[in-house]
Amino acid sequence: MRAANGRTVRSGTGKVKERVVYVDRSWMVERPSQRGAGDEAGFTLVELLVVVLIIGILTAIAIPSFLSQKSKATDTSAKELARTAQTTAETYAIDHGGNYEGLSLTNIQLYEKTIIAACPNASNACLSAVTVSASPFEEYTVTAKATDGHTFSVKREPSGNTKRECTPANVTGSEGGGCQNGSW
């Protein structure tokens, strides 16, 4: 026979049949009825305000950095377009006896279909200008415009050297984007 209180139960002969031991595990389970009114778990107002303050500081640091990177990305797209236009202009010169006479925005687009010339363009960089010097037609300038308004130009000089210029000139940091101090 089992005893509910953990006592030893003896048979009629006096031998111990079974010992039943109960362990009190009620301390492991917290019942809502056992908690007092002042013992509720949760965060205090001060703790919540500290968390909100930390999130605000991190946001204040991250947003300007993100905006700077976005500006640099749009500027990089315009730089790539100007560089592609430069390569296309060189291809045009090879096909036309080594000079750039007749080089225009339309001719560049005929050679390279991926160049976007519809400026202004709110979603992509675009090739905004192609200029060629007077005779002997050894100089040209191709200019691409980024969606943020920055322009990137590649100039070919008569010596064959190229010069890269951009606007806004004399601006650094996030305002300058991919154009730092007028060159790229």
Structural class estimated from helices and strands: alpha+beta
As a percent range, the share of strand residues is: 15-25%
Query: Number of helix segments?
Result: 3
Average pLDDT confidence is: 83
CATH-derived topology of the domain at 74-176: Pantoate--beta-alanine Ligase, Chain: A,domain 2
| Strands in their spatial order, largest beta sheet | 3-4-5-6
Measured on Cα atoms, how large is the radius of gyration?
39 Å
CATH architecture designation of the domain at 74-176: 2-Layer Sandwich
Number of strands: 6
SSE topology:
Blueprint lengths: L7 E3 L5 E4 L25 H51 L9 H7 L14 E7 L7 E6 L5 E6 L5 E6 L5 H4 L8
Antiparallel strand pairs: 1-2, 3-4, 4-5, 5-6
List descriptors.
alpha+beta; 6 strands; 184 residues; 4-stranded antiparallel sheet; elongated; single chain; Pantoate--beta-alanine Ligase, Chain: A,domain 2; two-stranded antiparallel sheet
Descriptive report:
With 184 residues, the protein is of the alpha+beta class. Helix content is 34%, strand content 17%. It is elongated, with a radius of gyration of 39 Å. It starts with 7 loop residues before the first strand and ends in an 8-residue tail after the last helix. The mean pLDDT is 83.
